[in-house]
Structures are given as C-alpha cells and as structure tokens.
Amino acid sequence: MTTIKIALLGFGTVAQGTFNLLQDNAELIRNRTGVNVEISKIFVRNPDKYSHITLPETAQYVTDIDEVLKDDSIQMVVELMGGTTFAKDCVEGALKAKKNVVTANKDLLAESGPYLLDLASKNGVDLRFEASVLGGIPIIRTLYESLAGNRITEIIGIMNGTTNFILTKMSEEGLSYQDVLKEAQDLGYAEADPTADVEGLDAARKLAILASISFNRRIFFEDVSVEGITSIDTEDIKFGKEFGYNIKLLGIAKETSQGLSLNVYPAFIPTTHPLASVRGSYNAIYVKGNGIDDVMLYGRGAGSLPTGSSVVSDIMEVAKNISYNETGRLKPFYYDQKNIYSPGKIQSSYYLRLEVDNKTGVLAKISAKLAEQKISVLSIVQRNMDPETAVLAIVTSKCPRSYILNLIDSFNSLRSVKSVNSVIRIMEA
Ligand code: HSE
C-alpha cells in the first residue's frame, strides 16, 4: 500500500482533533482511500508544550518550517496555525514546492483564496479548505461538487456559533446581551475580545468564501455589508416573539436581476423557518438552487473533532488524488463578473421600536409619517411604560432600506417621538 507523508503546521485545538481522528480512524481511512496517510512532521514553535501527547514513531516535531518545505518526501502540508501573514508564506511556499495543501484558515482564504487557488492550479497540486467555513459542516464540497449542477440563487446561514449562543440565551432566558456575553466568555465560548464574532466579521468572511463558490465570482470580505448583534435588546426579542419571529445573525448572499447582494445582519425570521430552530452554538446553512429547490445542512461550526473531521476528509481526498496522479484538477472557478448590489436598495420588511408620548393623536402622526414615506404597516403593538410614555413596535411591509432611513429621520423630527430604539430586518419565510 502506498504511504503518503504529511506535515501538520500548528498543533492547537483543530490540529489535535485532526491528529486524533487520523490515529483513531487509521484503519477506516486506509480502507476508504487505499493509501496509508502518515504524519511525518509537526511544525510548532515550542514542542515542550505538547510533551503530554504521544506521537506515533513515524512523527517528529520540527521548529524550522524549511524542514517541511524542503523535505521532498512530504507530499501534503496541513496548515492549521491560523493568521494571514506567516500562514500565507507557508501555504505559498508549500504550493510553489509542489506540495498539496489542506487548510482550515478562513481568514487566509477570505483574503487570498483566489490567488492561492490559482497558484495551486499552476503548480498542479490541490488546495482544499473544507474546514475553513462552518467547522464540521461539509458545505464547501457540497456547493462545489454535490450541487454543481444547480444555479445557486441564495445562501442563508447561521454562520457564527458565538452569536447564535448569545441570541439563543437572550431569547430563552430573557438575559441581557452584556450578561450573556460575559457568561459565554467565562465558559470559554466567546473570545476575550469578541469583536470578530459579535460585530459579524467572522460571518462575513465565511459568507465571502461560500458566495465565491456559489456565484463563481471573486468575492472578498470587503464586498459584504456587515452589522453585528451588539445593539439587540431583550425588549426586541420579546416583541419579536409576539409577532412570531426568532432573532438570528444571518449571512445572506442572493442573486438578483440587479446583481449580487451580500449581507451579514441580525434579522427576525419566522419561527416556522427551518433556520429558526437552530439553537445554541450550532450553525446551519440553507441553500436554494434551481434544481434542488432548497437544502439545509446543520451541525457544529467549530470544535476540535468536528473541524478535524472536515480536515481529515480533505486529507483523504487529496491522498486519493495523489495516489491516482490526479492532483491539480480543481480549476479556479471564478469566471463571472456580476455586480454587487447596494445594500440601501435591498427590499425587506422591518421591525421598529419607538418610545413616544402617551397622548391622543400621536399614533395619527406616526401613521402620517409612514404614509409620507409610502410604507404600509403590517402589525403594530403598543405597550404603556408609564402614564406619559408608550412603546410602539411596528412591523412594516417590504420597502428599500433607504425608505426606512428616511422614515427614522422623520420620526426623529416629531416632538412626540422620544426615541427610535431599534430597527431590525425581517426575513421572508
Ligand atoms: N468563532 C467562530 C464562531 C468559530 O463562534 O462560530 C470559528 O469561525
């Protein structure tokens, strides 16, 4: 049986999950691929950190990257370090040395994916990245291979576990954003600096990668309009429930006749939508295509073994390609130049929450402003805070975002409106 030597770069959480699966499922992997995948080198800065882990006899730690890049016996490099500077140098160096690469590095892919895929193709080697988006959910190969016969029209994802955990807790336990964030940090679910997750940046990077594959166009992080969850209030979640909605941070990429719209934002979704039942730190992705109609994948978007599972599937795929002499077949798939649609023009229903004077005639003034902006109301709920103040929760019919921004300006010009507290999009079923 052919032996294929691989090197792991980095030995953190995902690398250890990959290592464990390669060890525990070694026989199954051999049977399914027809090759023996052997870990030859593990590149780390400080091997002492891992003295508690027993390596197989064939494997050794190295602290000089050239011991991997200049070793002709290594045919595959598995980059699991993260970051976009040194990791990019390593991946670039490996591809130029005609080594196949598997990576779980979303940031690197979102920033330099097209360049690295071109480089892999020119060097006749594979670059695989199933684990870079949604951890254990097999979405990359699903889009690239299983759904290849479809024209994809829309992808909608709950692509970030930290924010889904926070929104689920706020919704189910009525806790504030700040309290849940602190709990998530104490439990180690959320990073000490949670910006990338809670501001939607992590989801936007994932959306850029998935949209590139779905729509055959180079899409970068900067092409995605992003809003996070930091201003979501438990009051809004309660009103949402009354209207039949759950709140989720969504990544949405959609093809319209005017071009592609690419957005990450918190939105109310009907409780009957399959994505509404995705709770806690789970992720899911809902894909619409002109053949399949719709399909949804659900699972763990992070974690050692789930993400390791995706890395190992890529390692097995590349190992088979090496053994059949078929690496480098994956041609760059960017041939389309659809324009990107301005977020201001996207039509949606909206939920608004305002604090107003609790006086006769105020509702009539609010209605007049809505009529001026040609926005019709689908539902309205009033709750009295005290004898002087009422809270209004309004659900509008579909309109462009620019209309809503004008409406907010006109509400703010009314003396009887104390504040416009929230504006949240509503996704159609
Ligand atoms: N921090 C991410 C999340 C996982 O919370 O989903 C890695 O992308």
TrEMBL record:
UniProt entry keywords in alphabetical sequence: Amino-acid biosynthesis, Methionine biosynthesis, NADP, Oxidoreductase, Sodium, Threonine biosynthesis
Active site feature: K206 (proton donor)
Pfam families: ACT, Homoserine_dh, NAD_binding_3
InterPro entries in the cross-refs: ACT-like_dom_sf, ACT_dom, Asp/hSer_DH_NAD-bd, HDH, HDH_cat, HDH_CS, NAD(P)-bd_dom_sf
Residue positions binding NADPH: K106
Keyword tRNA processing found: no
GO biological process: methionine biosynthetic process; threonine biosynthetic process
Molecular functions per Gene Ontology: homoserine dehydrogenase activity; NADP binding
The keyword Disulfide bond is annotated on this UniProt entry: no
The protein's enzyme class: oxidoreductase
Origin superkingdom: Bacteria
Catalytic reaction(s) noted: L-homoserine + NADP(+) = L-aspartate 4-semialdehyde + NADPH + H(+)
Pathway assigned in UniProt: Amino-acid biosynthesis; L-methionine biosynthesis via de novo pathway; L-homoserine from L-aspartate: step 3/3; Amino-acid biosynthesis; L-threonine biosynthesis; L-threonine from L-aspartate: step 3/5
EC number(s) reported in the record: 1.1.1.3
Cofactor(s), names only, from the UniProt record: a metal cation
ACT domain boundaries: 351-425
Positions of L-homoserine binding: E191
NCBIfam families: PRK06349.1
Family the UniProt entry places it in: Belongs to the homoserine dehydrogenase family.
UniProt name for this protein: Homoserine dehydrogenase
Organism: Veillonella dispar ATCC 17748
